[in-house]
Each structure stands twice: as C-alpha cells, then as structure tokens.
Amino acid sequence: MSTGSTPPRSSSRAPQRRNRPLTVTVAIIAALVVAFVFATQVYTDVLWYDQLGYLKVFITQNLTRGAVFLVASIVVGIAVWASLFYAYRHGQLQTPSPRRSAGPRVDA
C-alpha cells in the first residue's frame, strides 16, 4: 500500500557531515606519521654520513637530485602547457550535431 509520499532523505546525508572532521583528523595524523618516518630516515642518513666524514657528499647529492627534479618538472610543465595552449588555439571545437544521433554510426 502506497501513500504517495516519500520519506525524507536528509538522514542519509547527516552521517557524512558528522564524519567529515574525523576523516580530516585521521588524514592529518596519517600525514604526520608519514612525515615523521621520512624525517627519521633522513636524520639517520645525516648522522651516518657525518660519522663517516661524507656529510658534504650526502648534502650535495640530495641537493643535486632536488635541483634535477625541479628543472625536469618545470620543463615538463612548460611542454604540457604549450601543448594545451596550441590545442586550444588551433583545435576545432567539436559539438554534436542535432541532426546526427548520439549512437554509433552504422553504414548500410
């Protein structure tokens, strides 16, 4: 037997809103744990290379890796931007024609 009215759906969205602060908190704690583990590994390497007398080599190597990563990121970013810019400027805007059907074309 149907009464014609539907029950309100606001109750299904309420738990998502309540769990949002918990989700953000868990994500922040997870990020802090990952950062702590990474920092301890780097600090251990710094102590190790300093003990061996090669701290300058370790620092130079890591700064060089960072610089190469930064330069490569900039070059790739410029290439992607140039490609998108060229496609936007020289590409044709393709919109579906109202006379053609949206389905696959079948030639008889």
From TrEMBL:
<dbReference type="GO" id="GO:0005576">
    <property type="term" value="C:extracellular region"/>
</dbReference>
<dbReference type="Pfam" id="PF03699">
    <property type="entry name" value="UPF0182"/>
</dbReference>
<feature type="transmembrane region" description="Helical">
    <location>
        <begin position="21"/>
        <end position="43"/>
    </location>
</feature>
<dbReference type="InterPro" id="IPR005372">
    <property type="entry name" value="UPF0182"/>
</dbReference>
<keyword id="KW-0812">Transmembrane</keyword>
<dbReference type="GO" id="GO:0016020">
    <property type="term" value="C:membrane"/>
</dbReference>
<keyword id="KW-1133">Transmembrane helix</keyword>
<protein>
    <submittedName>
        <fullName>UPF0182 family protein</fullName>
    </submittedName>
</protein>
<feature type="transmembrane region" description="Helical">
    <location>
        <begin position="63"/>
        <end position="88"/>
    </location>
</feature>
<keyword id="KW-0472">Membrane</keyword>
<keyword id="KW-1003">Cell membrane</keyword>
